[in-house]
């Protein structure tokens, strides 16, 4: 008895969703080099600012990996709380220095 009105309601909701998704604006990026064509080697970058950005990105990735390994060691119980606190403080110090430039 309520089967057809429910089916019609779901079809209407899906149709409305499809219309809204089709009308969703697409962000266009003007200028610049696509990420796939960006130079992979930091030394190949032409401007000093690009070299600094690449160096900071590399340092941030290294710091992220160190923090991840530190957290894994803590969860596995292979590091004491004192060692964890000391290494975490050192990592936070490095992060603050990177942010300050």
Supply the key terms.
single chain; mainly alpha; elongated
Would you mind describing this structure in some detail?
The chain is built from three helices and no strands. It is mostly helical and 101 residues long. The protein has a domain at 46-101. 0% of the residues are buried.
Percent in helix: 55-70%
Structural class: mainly alpha
The rounded Rg comes to 25 Å
Quickly count the helices: 3
Give the overall average pLDDT.
Answer: 77
**Shape estimate:** elongated
pLDDT < 50 stretches? none
Quote the distance from N terminus to C terminus.
69 Å
Strand content: under 5%
What letter string, H or E per element, gives the SSE order? HHH
Q: Sketch the major β-sheet.
A: none
> Using DSSP, what is the number of strands?
0
What's a quick, concise take on this entry?
The chain is mostly helical. The chain has three helices and no strands.
Fold blueprint:
Blueprint: H1 3-22, H2 48-76, H3 81-100
Helix pairs in contact: 2-3
